TrEMBL record:
It comes from the Eukaryota. InterPro entries: PPR_rpt, TPR-like_helical_dom_sf. GO terms for molecular function: mRNA binding. Gene3D superfamilies: Tetratricopeptide repeat domain. It holds the Pfam family PPR_2. This is Pentatricopeptide repeat protein-like protein.
Length: 683
């Protein structure tokens, strides 16, 4: 029985060989006879069904590799020896080839022999540029800059290792070592390691991140202009242009920025994209806010902002033309850059155009008609009041002014469907809104006094069915400002409970200051003091230390509350007692349990003292009123006496601190006067 495939194959070869010999010896014989003899010889063996099944099983076992031989210890030992022999031969051949052909250059005199031998040993196993780059990147994470610089210099004699040089330059720029990074960049070129496109991108991006260092802009411009040199191996791309524009913007050098913009081609791979326009618009806005000349009046500032907004509108016209031609993609960053520029404009028209901008680029319809349109008059909306806007900029639109100028804002109108009779859908890809857009819309609604439109936008954007935006702290701040503008203290408390208590947002003290100001504006509401009390409790539960300004506003509301009763005063003092204790600890009184706590100083200390005085005034309000009985006033009189002691102690400390400072200054002045008199007497 033939159970082995190899044995079966040898038998068949033997039969074929004998058949061939028979044919060669008896070439005159009939072929049919020979074939009959062969079939008679092999037929009895192959007709047996059991043998056929066993042969198929052996064949399957051979193909699947499940032979008993492969499971034996002898087979495992042979494989192990075979692997060692092959590995030993490969390592030996690789080492001999590296040692024979690798050029490491002359030994650097600044490098010790130990370090040189160590780098040489490392290069024996780093024969590929990719392996070298990965090794350099790992070692740079351990801050081994000098070691890797030695390694790359040695490897540059035998291979192109540009990626490794890029890693070193990137690491040095991340560590804010600009001069050293540029030195490595020049050293790289001296060693015939020609920089690639990524090298220039890393350099310009790193210089933009270090724009606060002196000379970063000049160095970045030098690197960028070297790309346009006749002997440059790398052509400038829009990535390099965007990086240099960011350096100019952060350095607040608009002349350099416009010089770079003037050289951007209109078409091709180096043409401007969405990031380019967003960077330019952000730079214009920053220059209008930061680059204010000394001694500039309010009117001059308004005119300067007007010019900047007009420049941004012209840029946006170019953006829309390219968007319609599908040359660029509009994203949220670009939309919000234009919107933030409009919000600092001098005209209410600029603020209102933000909502048109969102409708144009995100397909979110306006919730309030445009300023200066008949639809706005039909809606019954009151005219916009802008008391802080100059007289010539106060009109809703230019066509309402005495000059009857043409209406502006046409560049933000929705783009019509390019199809014929609506047969072809609009191919424009709209931007997707997020919290950046939400805060932009809320700020625009606040400036144009459209609280109802803000409610509609808020409900639309946070709805999970439509956009599903989860508001962040910045969006919540703008929402609370709108509620303060509309005196909605009840909605304010609801917002704080939803997003701070249940939503998990980490609040800032400014959130509670806005919320408490809303209750102060809504003090004629008989529930406003109750809402303020809830806000105070939420602050105590979410903030580690109570905010003095919030406490002062709450005490002021309780004092001036026109519908207050004796029970309201007592409840307010009950809620103020724990936060007042927290303020005393922050001021350093009774802070022995907190040795690491530093007392408040400066303006924070003054705000804390003001809050305690407001609470003391609330005690006076309760004690001097006839709303409670004398028996009920007794514990509050004791608390008032203790607080008077605290305030007297704090005032004495501040007085001593101020007198000591005054005495030191007076002593210096007196000493200086006596010295001058002595010099004059000698003369």
């Amino acid at each position: 029985m033939l159970n082995c495939r190899a044995c079966l194959w040898r038998c068949i070869q033997a039969l074929e060989a004998s058949h061939t010999n028979v044919q060669s010896l008896h070439h005159n014989a009939a072929p049919s006879l020979l074939f009959r003899n062969f079939m008679q010889t092999s037929t009895p063996t192959l007709r047996d069904g059991s043998q056929l099944s066993e042969l198929s099983k052996a064949d399957d076992a051979y193909r699947s590799g499940s032979e008993k031989w492969r499971e034996s210890a002898q087979f495992a030992g042979l494989k192990k020896k075979e692997f060692k022999a092959l590995t030993r031969n490969n390592i030996a051949s690789r080492q001999t080839s590296v040692d024979a052909s690798r050029k490491l250059g002359q030994c650097d005199p600044t490098v010790s022999a130990k370090d040189w031998n160590q780098r040489k040993k490392e290069l024996q196993y780093l024969t590929d540029p990719l392996e070298l780059a990965n090794f350099v990147k790992r070692q740079l994470r351990k801050d081994k800059v000098m070691e890797m610089l030695q390694l790359v210099r040695m490897a540059s004699h035998s291979m192109q290792c540009i990626v490794s040089w890029n890693h070193i330059i990137d690491h040095l720029l991340y560590k804010e070592k600009v001069a050293q990074a540029l030195k490595v960049y020049n050293d790289m070129k001296k060693r015939a390691q020609f920089p690639d496109s990524y090298t220039y991108t890393i350099l310009l991006r790193g210089l933009s991140a270090n724009a606060h260092h002196s000379g970063s802009l000049e160095k970045a411009l030098s690197v960028y202009h070297s790309l346009s040199a006749p002997n440059s191996r790398v052509q400038p791309s829009i990535i390099h242009t965007n990086a240099i524009l960011k350096v100019c913007a952060r350095a607040n050098d608009m002349d350099a920025l416009w010089g770079v913009v003037a050289k951007i081609p209109g078409t091709g791979p180096a043409a401007a994209n969405g990031i380019t326009y967003a960077t330019i618009l952000n730079a214009i806005r920053q220059s209008l806010l930061v680059g204010r000349p000394i001694g500039e009046t309010g009117e001059q500032e308004a005119i300067r902002r007007e010019r900047g907004v007009i420049e941004g509108r012209r840029i946006w016209e170019e953006v829309i033309i390219k968007w319609r031609n599908t040359d660029i993609v509009i994203k949220e960053e670009l939309v919000c850059s234009m919107g933030r520029l409009l919000l600092i404009g001098s005209r209410p028209r600029d603020w209102d155009d933000v909502l048109s901008l969102v409708e144009q680029t995100m397909d979110i319809p306006r919730s309030v008609p445009r300023l200066g349109t008949p639809e706005r008059l039909k809606a019954g909306l009151p005219p916009l009041r802008a008391p802080k806007v100059l007289e010539e900029f106060r009109y809703d639109d230019d066509h309402l002014s005495p000059e009857k100028a043409p209406m502006r804002g046409e560049e933000f109108l929705p783009i019509a469907d390019p199809g014929i009779d609506g047969a072809v859908s609009n191919p424009l890809g709209y931007a997707k809104p997020s919290n950046n857009t939400l805060s932009l819309i809320l700020e625009a609604c606040q400036k144009v006094a459209a609280p109802q439109a803000a409610d509609k936008y808020w409900d639309l954007l946070i709805d999970p069915v439509t956009y599903g935006i989860v508001p962040d702290l910045n969006s919540l701040t703008f929402r609370l400002r709108l509620l303060r503008q509309n005196r909605s203290s009840a909605k304010t408390v609801e917002m704080l409970k939803t997003y701070l208590v249940n939503g998990g947002l980490e609040p800032r003290p400014g959130i509670f200051r806005i919320a408490m100001s809303t209750c102060n504006r809504d003090k004629n509401n008989h529930n406003s003091l109750n809402h303020a009390t809830q806000i105070l409790d939420i602050m105590s539960a979410t903030l580690e230390d109570a905010d003095a300004r919030v406490i002062a506003k709450y005490a002021e509301l309780a004092i001036d509350f026109p519908l207050a009763t004796g029970r309201d005063y007592m409840d307010a003092l009950a809620h103020l007692q724990p936060v007042a204790e927290n303020l005393r600890i922050q001021l350093g009184i009774g802070a022995g349990k907190y040795p690491d706590l530093s007392p408040l100083d400066g303006s924070d200390r003054q705000h804390a003292l003001l809050a305690l005085r407001k609470i003391f005034g609330l005690y006076d309000k309760l004690i001097n009123s006839e709303l409670v009985s004398e028996e009920e006033k007794r514990p509050y009189k004791e608390q008032r006496a203790r607080m008077a002691h605290y305030l007297h102690r704090l005032n004495y400390q501040d007085h001593r601190r101020g007198r000591d400072v005054f005495d030191k200054k007076a002593y210096r002045v007196k000493k200086l006067v006596l010295e001058r008199r002595g010099e004059e007497g000698k003369a």
